[in-house]
Amino acid sequence: MSNFVLNVVKPVAKRILLAWEHLESGVSYDLTSSAFIEDPYRTYEQLRRKDPVHRMRLVEAWALTRYEDVQDVLIDHKRFTNAERNYDYMQYRTFLDLDPPDHTRLRGLVSKAFTPRAVRELGPRIEGLVDELLDAVAGKDRIDLISEFAFPLPVIVIAEMLGVPAEDRARFREWSDDIALSVNPLLNSEQIERVQQATEELFDYFEGIIEQRRQAPQNDMISALLAAEEEGDRLTHEELLSTLMLLLVAGNETTRNLIGNGMLALLKSPAQLQRLRDHPELLDSAINELLRYDSPVQIDSRNAIDDVEIGGKRISAGQRILAIVGAANRDPQVFANPDELDIGRDEVSHLSFGRGIHYCLGSPLAILEGRIAFTSLLERFSSIRLARDPVFKEQIVLRGVEELWVEVEH
Ligand code: HEM
């Protein structure tokens, strides 16, 4: 198993590999078990306590669970690269998978659109969209908050920013979720095919829109990037396509999961939900706490460029490192009572948007969408209750529920 991207390991082989891990370190990290998918935090706690720099055998990688180690690796892009994800099945790299100077050049071309100031101007439009989505469910007393609300909101916002028709959002969801599978450390051949096919279809789709914008530029990001391509040496056509793909994909499932996981956490802690209703001034710290408590992105991956030591363990050049931000966010060295949801926390910040040069470009947008979404949901519904326990998707990196059924009173 030399490749990081593996076909699903057969059950017997899996048990042997996990037993080997356990023998070596006193703990094993079975990221395929349904108990782990339901509640990864118990496993993270064991890993952090018994073997915080953990050699995995099921996947060829090291798992880091301490806040300090995770943060150090993410900040140090000269020793830990994002450019070797062993993506031999991916034809294209986005700037998330590049090092400087290419990363700096491509991120620089789109960063203006995501500054806090530029994003603030989107506020009224996002409020309008949220109102439209909630108007559409007025009168219903049972709602799936994912399909009716948390899914369409970020797709429509990014589609409008890019300049692609928001009516195509059902297709974006499929492409976006299929392409996002590529962040997982374990993929089977059917999933690899889905990633490849979705990438091809999305690129074909973008080519059509790019051609239209070439004829008639508009005030959107596709036109702006196209102008940069036409200027000559600023980006190639392939880079234009992969940047559009990254922007379309990166903010969809993640923002959906902020709203889904965040709402679920509040519904499971009714006292905190009531506290937010009584103290709307806690909104910003509540969003941060929801991001910390059940992070939409659980793992950022890197490769060691040279041999390096972390926590007394020697990691060889080229080896994969899983910087588990979901675990770092629950490190008791940094957060008091880390397993408790406390929307008034003002401790050190979570790592859910990453750190260093790849720090989430869309974080101001995600936070704005979250602020407007939670404010409006609480204003519209005088009461929200879980209608049934939701099921988490079988995803290790992007954590979220497929459906979130709630009973509401208007
Ligand atoms: C709550 C929602 C979101 C979360 C939790 C999140 C999380 C992250 C994380 C952890 C990274 C760094 C990955 C790494 O270092 O390996 C990242 C990068 C990125 N995010 Fe987000 N994200 C969210 C929403 C968005 C939105 C709305 C956009 C806008 C389109 C966006 C665009 C990006 C881009 C372009 C990158 C790559 C940055 C780079 O490589 O320089 N994200 N995000």
Bound molecules: protoporphyrin IX containing FE
Secondary structure category: alpha+beta
Share of residues in strands: 5-15%
The coarse silhouette is: globular
Order of helices and strands: HHHEEHEHHHEHHHHHHHHHEEEEHHEE
Can you give a write-up of this model?
The protein has 410 residues and is of the alpha+beta class. It has a single domain, classed as Orthogonal Bundle (Cytochrome p450). The protein is built from 18 helices and 10 strands. A 5-stranded mixed beta sheet has the order 1-2-8-5-3. A hairpin with a 2-residue loop joins strand 6 and strand 7. The protein starts with 10 loop residues before the first helix and ends with a strand. Protoporphyrin IX containing FE binds next to helix 9, helix 13, helix 14 and helix 18.
List keywords for this structure.
alpha+beta; Cytochrome p450; five-stranded mixed β-sheet; 18 helices; globular; disordered N terminus
Secondary structure elements and pairings:
Elements: H1 11-25, H2 34-38, H3 40-50, E1 53-56, E2 61-64, H4 67-75, E3 80-81, H5 102-111, H6 116-120, H7 123-135, E4 142-144, H8 145-150, H9 152-162, H10 169-180, H11 189-215, H12 221-230, H13 237-250, H14 252-268, H15 270-278, H16 283-293, E5 299-304, E6 308-310, E7 313-315, E8 320-324, H17 325-328, H18 363-380, E9 383-386, E10 405-409
Parallel strand pairs: 2-8
Antiparallel strand pairs: 1-2, 3-5, 4-10, 5-8, 6-7, 9-10
Provide a short characterization of the protein structure:
The chain has 410 residues and is α+β, with helices and mostly antiparallel strands. The protein is 50% helix and 10% strand. It is globular and about 60 Å long.
